[in-house]
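User: I've been trying to design a sequence by hand for this structure and keep getting stuck. Would you show me what you'd pick, starting by listing the structure so we're on the same page?

Assistant: Good idea, let's start from the same input. This is the structure you sent:
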């Protein structure tokens, strides 16, 4: 698909990330769309199968990452666990858990904004390109990378400066605990 198509849906994923930030969640957002047959299709021609943001804190669920929640919606929308001919947009590179789920779901193309050099499922763990795995989604990196970085950096900056949500029994000053850049998403 063309760059304008990918940027449109990455902006939608960014809006999801902003919802997460407003809830005090580490801000990542994800959108899954069916890929139109026409490579020059406009975004309005693509059916949205799922969109979600990180809800780890709200659901008290370590697996409630944006990608996992968007995948669940997409399975239900399609009535099928095979999400072939789809594109998954996520603001930050998927973690190994989400990368594994994306492979199982047969997502056609994974598009992300910001690399995660510490624990990225693609760049660090090579799950998408691993020779022992029988499905290799196409990868597009760096779409709206600056905006995707900004939403995370500004979230952690606000939280350090006292604008975040104080967790029960926690101290805002040490809650972040070196998570900057995302030990959770
Ligand atoms: Zn994840």
């Amino acid at each position: 698909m063309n760059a304008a198509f990918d940027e449109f849906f990455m902006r939608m994923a960014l809006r999801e990330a902003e919802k997460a930030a407003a809830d005090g969640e580490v801000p990542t957002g994800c959108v899954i769309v069916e890929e139109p047959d026409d490579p020059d299709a406009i975004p309005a021609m693509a059916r949205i199968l799922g969109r979600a943001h990180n809800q780890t804190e709200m659901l008290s669920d370590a697996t409630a990452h944006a990608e996992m929640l968007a995948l669940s919606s997409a399975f239900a929308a399609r009535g099928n666990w095979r999400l072939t001919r789809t594109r998954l947009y996520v603001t930050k590179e998927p973690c190994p858990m989400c990368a594994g789920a994306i492979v199982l779901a047969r997502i056609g193309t994974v598009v992300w904004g910001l690399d995660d050099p510490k624990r990225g499922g693609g760049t660090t763990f090579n799950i998408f390109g691993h020779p022992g795995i029988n499905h290799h989604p196409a990868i597009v990196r760096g779409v709206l990378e600056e905006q995707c970085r900004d939403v995370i950096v500004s979230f952690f900056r606000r939280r350090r400066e006292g604008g975040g949500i104080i967790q029960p029994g926690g101290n805002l000053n040490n809650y972040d605990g070196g998570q900057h850049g995302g030990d959770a998403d």
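That's my pick for every position. To get oriented when you compare it with your attempt: The two ends are 27 Å apart (CA to CA). The mean pLDDT is 89.
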